[in-house]
Write a structure and sequence with these properties.
InterPro entries: Ribosomal_mS26. One of its GO terms (cellular component) is mitochondrial small ribosomal subunit. Helices cover about 65% and strands about 5% of the residues. The chain is mainly alpha-helical. Strand 1 and strand 2 (about 200-205) form a beta hairpin. The radius of gyration is 64 Å and the shape is elongated.
């Protein structure tokens, strides 16, 4: 661009160069649309600047050359982008990507298998503990039932012993006369009154 446009590039560089800080802004008064034309410009005819034919031909050739170079660069860049895209999809880069994906898949499968094995061991340990706990509860329940059965048997044995002791006092045909004589010899008075504590407070006299 600097070589194509010659002196214009210098002017552009000067315009784009950093400027120093403006200490005071110059203000120029402007004419309104109703103001008449200046006396120094009355009768002046604007004539376009002359064009050098040789310079015009040179500029046209350089501009054509510039367009050709830019078109070639754009095509080169586009071809490079398409080539890279093709290599990524079907070339060595695609093979490398597929290889990486395969390795990643194998690593993930190995991790998955290890995790499944670990979870299986944890599950088996949990099931084993649950079975042991169930067996322990069954054993405790059986022991509890056995103890209750033994206590029930002991209670029944006590009742049987008490019943055997009570049988000795039963009235039978063999001791009927003896019990009658004993009752006549030792009369009992059941006509009495008791208080709330069960003590006899009043009793009639046998006649």
């Amino acid at each position: 661009m600097l070589q194509l446009f010659g002196g214009r590039s210098v002017q552009a560089a000067r315009l784009l160069a950093p400027r120093s800080a403006v200490l005071m802004q110059a203000v120029r008064g402007r004419k309104s649309r109703t103001d008449p034309i200046a006396k120094s410009k009355e009768g002046r005819v604007k004539v376009p600047p002359p064009v050098d034919p040789v310079e015009m031909v040179v500029l046209k050739e350089r501009f054509t050359e510039y367009q050709t170079i830019m078109r070639a660069l754009r095509l080169e860049f586009k071809e490079e982008v398409l080539r890279r895209k093709y290599e990524e999809e079907t070339g060595s880069l695609a093979e490398e990507r597929l290889r990486q994906e395969a390795e990643e898949h194998r690593a993930l499968m190995a991790f998955n298998n290890e995790e499944n094995l670990r979870m299986l061991q944890v599950r088996m340990m949990r099931i084993k503990k649950e079975n042991e706990e169930a067996e322990r509860r069954k054993l405790e329940a059986a022991i509890q039932r056995e103890q209750e059965q033994q206590e029930f048997i002991k209670e029944k044995e006590k009742e049987i012993l008490l019943l055997q002791e009570d049988v000795k006092n039963f009235i039978t045909l063999e001791n009927l006369d003896e019990r009658i004589e004993e009752a006549l010899d030792n009369p009992k008075n059941y006509n009495f009154a008791v208080d709330k504590e069960g003590r006899i407070v009043k009793q009639t006299v046998l006649q």
